[in-house]
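User: I'm writing a tutorial on reading structure tokens. Could you give me a worked example: one chain, its sequence, then its tokens, then a sentence or two explaining what the tokens reveal?
Assistant: Sure. Here is the example chain.
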Amino acid sequence: MPKNKEHIINGTDYHHSIGKGDIVTSLVYGKHRGTPSTVIGYAPIQFGGYFPSLLVKTDTGYTFCIKQNLLCYWEDFPKLK
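And here are its predicted structure tokens:
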């Protein structure tokens, strides 16, 4: 869940509240959408823009880099379906 209950799902403040240690899932359609994953830190390469890139590790051990605005909290994912 977002750190502030006032944040709108998929709003700017919502995405900025996602940080290291949070359980998230990818919003991008593909292999890792809907898979619980943990944010492990900032990516060593930033692609520019308003949202930073984060390193995310899935339960299966796969690590990938993704923009912060393409993630949502795991608990909120069923609300988006």
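What the tokens reveal: The mean pLDDT is 88. The chain has two helices and five strands.
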